[in-house]
Amino acid sequence: MGWLRYKEHETHLTYHEDDDILHTITVPLPEPPPQKEIAGFGKKPKYQKWERPEYPKKLRELEASCDGIHEVWYKLDYYKDNYKDEIEYIKREWDRRLNGYWFYNNGVPTYIDGWHYTYLTHWKIDIGYPKYRSRDRKFFIFVRYAFTTTQAYYRYRAVDKVTDNVLSYFSTEKEIIKYLYDKDPEFVRAQRGDFYVDFGRRICYGVNYPKHRREGATYKADHILFDVITILEEAQGGIQSMDGTSAKKAFSKAVIKPWKKLPFFFSPSFSGSTDPKKVLDFDVPAERASSITGSVTNIKTGLESFIDFADSASRSWYDGDKLMVLHNDELGKTVLEDVNARWMVQKRCLSQGNGILIHGLAVNTSTVGEMTEKGGANFFRLCQQSHWEQRNSVGQTQSGLFNLFIPAYDGLEGYIDIFGNSIIDDPKESDIWRWENPVRDKDGNLQGAKRYLEERLEEILLKNDPNSVNEYEEEVRLHPMSFSQCFITAGSGSGLNMKNIIRRIKTLKFEKTTKRVDFVWKNGIKDTEVIMVNNPVSGRFVVSLELSPNEANNKMKTTITDVSGNTKEVWRPLMPWKFTAGSDPYKFRKTEGKRLSKGAGVVFYNRDRTIDPDGKPISDWQTFRTVCTYSYRPPTPTDYAEDMLMMCVYYGAMMFPEINIPIVWNHFVDRDYDGYLKYGKNPDGKWRNTPGYTLRGAWIQKLLQLQQLYTESFITLERHIDLLLDLKGLKGPEDITNHDLVAAGGGALMGSEIDYSEFFNPDSDTGDSYDVSDFF
């Protein structure tokens, strides 16, 4: 079999790896059985794909000839020698339901969860039996993980210095600082890393799953509901939605209709109508149980489990019940009840011991494109309390739930290959055979789902239509590509001129306006000259202006006097009015899963009226533009701050830093570059006693206002596509902290407005001292 080129199996699935908010989660997968036991073994990879197992003809004929499930079981037992293969089939299906299934998919040993297997094989929905989709695989595996995991993730821990014993774990830096405050630093130290603690019990109630329209989440959630309830005795499962009518619809469409078509061996005995309207009760009617005898059917009761639905959205509907599975459908559209308050009641139905012992599972689904304003806000608050990496002392998130998000481009109809895998990125021509109906752009290039959705958004914004912004927001909600996009509401955007930004991005894609470089001290000697070194592959800085040797490194020593009268000799730029820098170390302290966060820096060329006087067309200006950007994570915060310092020294730029985390501020002072720090004024006209700005309150509004003005009137001057792409992704004021370059660029814009002429006279470059006591 030399022609067989099978690949290694996946050891885990990764979720949220590219998301702007959610932490990356890695879910382990089981080890595969021997190769020969995996379905599809022996076939060429291109012929290996999901194939729904055929239902045995003899079982179908047996069912048709019997009067009810009990008689089928009776005959199977009585004529078991005639039904050996069929009985083995039933055993096999039960094994797959409980333990999952392995099959080769284009040469890759692929595991699907037992819920997923029975969903594909036996759960007939409105379109027939579901097709295999890698997106669905991710959904079922993640819900199973939430249902079974006993491990909690923590970012920090306190350790005894003497014994190395772990004293406690913490999710945030604030928590561990508070813990260490009263401890003796001689004996206790903090550690930062990725720490997992096994509590030996379940620590999650279930998942929040905001999803795009017609994704099949209701069918999948209710299949899980049915599957769990029908293998347990005396178990209750429920469905609650935005109102009773919607819950009844889900119950009828996604539970009752598929249940009617299930094979008999997955359908427990039930009482009542074959078309139940309010409750599906898995018990045995007395007359039916007593009318048949035999070793298999000699039972008087069934599971005594049932599935029902809530006839209203009220939090009190299930209060006092013991639920094993709860499907909360359309939380984002629930306006008759606060779903956060309702969840606090539902948690008690799914757990014991005041929430410490979790026995039930909740699956919370909602179509994001149709969220109402109030319902969407309430669901958003619930999701805000469900971030996987934010755990309390008992291992749970604040809500007890985990967020699950799968981007709309993963599983988008029309962008799925013959193996059921999503075509996300633009495929190669050599892979076209995997795509039944390839999609090409106007230039004839193969187009993946991600680029299709991105360009769809661009087309909407570029239309000369006053309603394009509203249409853009609705399109984002219908097909969210990041978790934060699920909760965009009308008018909540950034206010930036997206049309201008996208037009400028399209222009810069065809122009070479920047290059990647590194800044280093000449000959490795600090405080001499900073030189620019070309590094097109991995340069830390992106520049659009290279200075001549006479223009770069213009700095001088000067003496400053503080409020106490103390003097200090420091460096300052020779022409501090020429360039302003901004820095954003805020996300530098955070780690978003495997995506290490970055420090950011921007240098802005202040308007020079001798070069760009009034009356000169803005499109011809050479100044009032970005000249350098930096988005990188060096090994240490000190390395980042030194990069910012070298950037400022090269351009002679004053630094207006973000100081929530004062890495840059402290480093400049420690290195005697106090003269490069720029201070602003308070509303009363007095100089602030700290340099730079903070990403809080009025500063954020000011930052956004300046970015709005810049993108409205000066966008044609921008040459840095990396900054524009970050601006394009901004959702609103609350999202600025997730966009490093936007924050750093905004800082540079704010700093460029500050007039330092009272300290530095542009007509006299020979001054050697200045008084900064007013700053303090």
CATH architecture of the largest domain: 3-Layer(aba) Sandwich
SS field, number of helical segments: 19
Distance between the termini: 79 Å
CATH superfamily of the largest domain: P-loop containing nucleotide triphosphate hydrolases
Helicity, in percent? 25-40%
Number of strands: 30
On the 0-100 scale, what is the average pLDDT?
89
Largest sheet: 7 strands, mixed
Q: Please identify the top-level CATH class of the largest domain.
A: Alpha Beta
Oligomerization category of the chains in this entry = single chain
Return residue spans where pLDDT drops below 50 for at least 5 consecutive residues: 286-300, 589-595, 761-776
Estimate the global geometry from the Cα principal axes. elongated
List the helices and strands and how they pair.
Blueprint: E1 12-15, E2 25-28, H1 57-65, H2 69-78, H3 84-99, E3 101-105, E4 108-112, H4 114-122, H5 134-148, E5 151-160, E6 166-170, H6 173-181, E7 188-198, E8 206-211, H7 217-229, E9 236-240, H8 244-260, E10 279-282, H9 286-291, E11 305-309, E12 325-329, H10 339-349, E13 351-352, E14 357-358, E15 361-367, H11 373-384, E16 401-403, H12 449-462, H13 468-478, H14 498-508, E17 515-521, E18 530-534, E19 541-543, E20 555-561, E21 567-573, E22 579-584, E23 591-592, E24 595-596, E25 599-605, E26 625-632, H15 637-651, E27 653-657, H16 663-670, E28 679-681, E29 687-691, H17 697-713, H18 721-728, H19 740-752, E30 769-771
Parallel strand pairs: 8-15, 8-16, 9-11, 9-12, 12-15, 20-30, 22-27
Antiparallel strand pairs: 1-2, 3-4, 5-6, 5-7, 10-11, 13-14, 17-18, 17-19, 19-26, 20-21, 22-25, 23-24, 25-26, 28-29
Helix pairs in contact: 3-4, 7-8, 12-13, 14-18, 15-16, 17-19, 18-19
